[in-house]
Design brief:
Blueprint lengths: L2 H4 L6 E10 L2 E11 L4 E5 L6 H8 L7 E6 L2 E2 L5 H9 L1 E4 L11 H12 L4 H14 L15 H13 L5 E5 L7 H18 L2 E6 L2 H7 L2 E6 L2 E6 L1 H5 L4 H8 L14 H10 L4
Parallel strand pairs: 3-8, 3-9, 6-7, 7-8
Antiparallel strand pairs: 1-2, 1-4, 4-5, 9-10
Bound molecules: adenosine-5'-triphosphate.
């Protein structure tokens, strides 16, 4: 899709001047980002940089400490609980451990959200589930038990389940983690293909530079408590910023600290452990 055409409409997800964190701890501040229909957007950053925290902000699991997060034009912090439930129905979230129900077969796992949230007929359920299983290449695995499928297949079943209600926005938490190089490429192309086919938007939280740069329209990079870079993959690839270079080139030495920073809470804990007040 042409990036300019996608941006002529309102964003599906919008963070404006957002700070996010837990209690009085701020993980990220001054976050401005926008996700449009038809786009694949990659949120990248080192371990502990706040990527999952961003995702929790988008789903309204945590509220912004400052600024505003809107999904489908509605502020997730002020919408009613019923409104938030409806917003979440328009989002598909694929968690890293896309926990499947082990007592149900592949078909029933994917059918589950349809049975929970719609009143469509049994024959429509069959067609809809087979269509989504087909999209992830597992139509002929519909009858298998969860114990009979591989880890990579289980992820694809979880993906089929996440898209069965045809969400407008799909949020993926580390979709490439632990995959072999072939599955990695297949998963990346699957995400791109589903985004185009469903004309939805996909947001990926990922460390994987090569795969996400290959399919993303827009990349946001977080670190040091803020947004470090935003742009097309080709723009970021040309950056000479030392943080971005260290991340993209996978260098062990550079501005990204390996050690989690010492906080007052840690020092207090350590003092207690060592028998000091
Ligand atoms: N529920 C929580 N309560 C308090 N602090 C939290 C909570 N969840 C995460 N954090 C802190 O927020 C910071 C960002 O964590 P987050 O999980 O968003 O990072 P991430 O970029 O997704 O990391 P990774 O790539 O390692 O999964 C970390 O310092 C973490 O300790």
């Amino acid at each position: 899709m042409e990036p300019d055409a996608s941006q002529s409409t309102d964003p599906l997800l919008d963070f404006s001047g957002v700070a996010l964190g837990y209690a009085d701890f701020t993980v990220l501040q001054d976050i401005d980002l926008r996700v449009y229909r038809g786009q694949v957007v990659a949120m990248m950053g080192g371990s502990g940089s706040g990527k999952t925290t961003l995702l929790r902000g988008a789903t309204g699991q945590i509220t912004a400490q400052r600024g505003a997060i809107t999904a489908f034009g509605q502020n997730v912090a002020t919408v009613s609980s019923d409104g938030l439930r409806k917003l979440r129905q328009r989002m598909g979230v694929l968690f890293q451990q896309g926990a499947l129900f082990t007592d149900l077969d592949v078909f029933e796992n994917v059918a589950f959200p349809l049975r929970e949230h719609t009143r469509i007929s049994e024959s429509q359920i069959v067609e809809c589930v087979l269509d989504k299983l087909n999209a992830v290449g597992l139509r002929a695995a519909a009858h298998l038990k969860i114990s009979e499928i591989s880890g990579g297949m289980a992820r694809r079943v979880a993906l089929a389940r996440a898209i069965v209600l045809e969400p407008e926005l799909i949020l993926y938490d580390e979709p490439f983690a632990g995959l072999d190089p072939i599955s990695l490429g297949i998963t990346a192309q699957l995400i791109r293909g589903l985004t185009d086919r469903l004309n939805c938007a996909s947001v990926l939280i990922t460390h994987d530079v090569a795969e996400s740069f290959a399919i993303a329209d827009q990349v946001y990079m977080v670190g040091q408590g803020r947004l470090l870079a935003a742009g097309k993959p080709s723009e970021l690839a040309e950056s000479s910023d030392p943080y971005i270079r260290q991340f993209l080139d996978g260098q062990p030495d550079g501005p990204i600290a390996f050690h989690y920073p010492e906080t007052p809470a840690f020092k207090q804990w350590l003092g207690k452990q060592r028998g000091r007040p």
